[in-house]
Amino acid sequence: MTEFPSAAQAVRAADIVVLGGGPAGLAVARLLHLRGLAPRVLERDAGPDARSQGGSLDLAERGGQLALREMGLFAEFEELARPLGQRLCLMNSDAEIQVDVDEAAGEYRPEIDRAQLRRLLIDSLPPEMIRWGAEVTAVTPTPDGRHRVSLADGTEVEAGLVIACDGIRSRARPLVTDEQPAYSGITFIHGDLRDPGPESFVARHTGEGILHAVGDNKAILAQRAADRSVRVYFAVRTEEDPSREQGDRFTDPAAVRRQLRETFAGWSPDLLAVLDEIDGYFAYWPLYGMPARQQWKQHSGITLLGDAAHVMPPFGGEGVNMALLDAVELVNTLFAPEHATLDDAIAVFERAMLDRMVGTILDTDASGEMLLSPAGAAPLAQHFAAAADAP
User: Fold this and answer.
1) Residue 153: per-residue pLDDT
2) Where are the domains of the chain?
């Protein structure tokens, strides 16, 4: 490999390949682009609108908002953000309201649809920077210290630096760590109310924000989107289905409705009425997470960001915030003058990122235990009461 007097000079000379066109990958590409670099982003989706991007996200001041400021996109974000999305209504399984709180009274964490955030990031890049329909099948070190990225269409891409933002099943992770995501014990089944009417109990109580209806180790969660639709998640503790065969029967909405009515038997009819309001198909989302404390192997010319590095369940809403913060911290570290080599800079970034994630993952796991508890809505209600009493 060519030797450079600093990591910054090495990264400017490197041909950089970013795996994944989600928030982390697009953010790191934007930050590198602002420094005059032209990374190549490989995204398996056929195009920006190839599939649903999921629900809405709340961006924290020291997470997603900080990153958007660094990317020069904060004004555009504020035009899309929904501060009223911070409202939360908590019910028990009898549909009795336990808490109705505007969380904007605390940290400012406005909501934005995942699809809107992704489009904002895509539009901030030159169109030729993203290669759509590029499904990565393998990442292989080469004798000269580089990496070869193999794609499903039989082509290959050579890279001097690989930044892997390709999610829970990252093809690059085995080069960096032997740790693998573990099933959390919780699965979400979700569907959408595309045009809910005023008669919809769940949509009415979701309001502009979020509804949590919580019972014994189960929950019905709903959140409002920018297009006025409501996404509904049925959260249950259940055994892992490693084959993912369970997802095949989700092409039969009537069967899913029957199953969920059995699972949530005894819950308020007002809450269960949402099952008949869901339009189209249901989707299956088992939740996985990485350990809070990870051991990473010696590696060169490659690193992991976002879910590829530290996937966790969505409890607490920190996944995208930490992914965007990863992008900022990586690029800032790569260009910090004190690092002699590219690998030195990457190692410094990774140590700080993994240390930062310990508390975040532990807090996320604790939030999941509160949400799906044998005590129903009581732990969450007590949590909000304590927060309200805090100075």
Assistant:
1) 96
2) 7-85+108-181+291-371, 187-290+377-389
